[in-house]
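Thread title: Can someone regenerate the structure for this chain?

I was given the following input by a collaborator and told the matching structure tokens would be attached. They weren't. Posting the sequence so someone can regenerate them.
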Amino acid sequence: MRVILCEQGDLGCATSSASSKLVHGGLRYLEQLEFRLVAEALAEREVLLRAAPHLIHPMRFVMPHAPGLRPGWMIRAGLFLYDWLARRQTLARSSSLDLTRAPYASGLQPQYIRGYAYSDCWVDDARLVIANARAARDAGASIRPRTRCVAVTRLASHWRVRLRDAAGEVEVSARSLVNAAGPWVEDFLEHVVGETSRDHLKLVQGSHIVVPRLYEGDHAYILQNDDRRVIFVYPYEREFTLIGTTDVPAQGDPRACRTGADEIQYLCRAANRYFSRRSDPRDVKWSYCGVRALLDDGATEPSKITRDYLLRLDAGADRAPLLSVFGGKITTYRRLAERALEKLGAALTGVGMPWTLRAGLPGSDIPGADLESYARGLCTTRPGLPGDLVRALVRRHGSHAVDVLGGAAAVDELGTHFGSDLYAREVDYLLSHEWAAEADDVMWRRTKAGLHLSAIERDALVQYVSARAEGCVT
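Best answer:
Regenerated them for you:
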């Protein structure tokens, strides 16, 4: 089969780079009795950990026991069920903790003396998007970011599709159309396809904040809040702590999503309940928000809306197939895609057998998934490169770090240093191999350098990328 993917903006520029950056089963979904979703997510967690060990790594989550909220027996029962549903997992099982001992005593207020720990995974969500796009391109797909689908005509055997980018418009034909537009699924059906959807979304804004480091250690915290929601807190980009997320009904265009002052206050207040070092809105170094496209199941509270998904196939003898995706979460994206092809297989000939279960994503072929040993090996062969820089490149690119470096064996061979661990050689690679076209693509999605660069350094990067786009830099 031949595939074209069109994306109206940069790859991952909306919800897919604004998640909590976790590949997890969804412990809190057990309270909503979402057992099938949790079991599927836990199974996919293991699949993705094998598929992209450079982008996904295990993380231990600690839940301090807070008197007056969920009782200890309920937490223990939930964790027992979580472990049971993940019975084929390779990650450490849950346990009770003494929070007065290192490393878990770091940063917590002294009244929190016991808690519980379980395992899940952290993911670089935006780079996971790029890895999947690269895998699709390697398999022959045409990946077209900054390209809008502006009109479609449905015929009995195929679709005529008009695509528009900066260079103009082009028309393509396709046997089937997959509407995987996230928050824009209903909008696409109504305004482009010209049909009314029988299924609906609830759009929920989730915001996160990044503050100076609140505690030592590599573990994360899952904090119970007094509104019965939970907040994730974990180390981020070495010197920071990420806190999220909120659940607020979204208003207006998802592209205009902005973190509100009340959301920042909410997240600071949740963290301040547990940590000795207080967080204030003035401490926030960066915030981001995204709009989750949740399947409308009738729930009135945003936090109780299902995180499951629905695949709606519209096809018939005289209607070319249209498959729309409602809902979903990053952890189950691969299985969702597999089921989408199963659905299309009922309406199309030529759909092959599933194959992604054991397929690695680009950059994953690191012996034993041992990133540290791989980075040390690169440092041995390129002694002129700082170890921290090499490790950063391996975390972002996996085995493709070798391609990023090319023949460079010393820092002065990497080109302009924009600050932190970002050099011109990597920027050029992102522009030529990963569809980056603007400085923001580089600073906030392909890397997180924007969090570390000064205003002057960011301006220098903007000028460099603009010059490259105009062909002024070789």
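The mean pLDDT is 94.
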